[in-house]
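User: Please predict the structure of the protein below. I'd like the answer in structure-token form so I can feed it into my own downstream comparison script.

Assistant: Understood. Taking the following sequence of 99 residues as input:
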Amino acid sequence: MENETEKPLDPVAEFILETLAESGSVAPVDVARALGELRKRTSEKPDAWRRFMNPVKQQMIHLARAGRIEITRKGVVVDPEDFRGVVRMRLAGAKPQED
């Protein structure tokens, strides 16, 4: 660890950052589905990924507050403290993607 006072990132936050590094821009639901697929047990229902939605949203907001990612709605960066509707996330400072 570079800084001894720095806390390690939550595994969900790490997964979000890894996904964004590969994808550029992604919706929280897509991250939850990918995480659910990665951690899927054979006995689980197909919609078991839904249990990851709240942790993904919480970590998305945490990372946006820390300035590591941006939350966008209709291509415009929104305040992580006050947003609604369908959003996407991207690494902070990344160029907007054509969706």
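That's the full token string. The chain has three helices and four strands.
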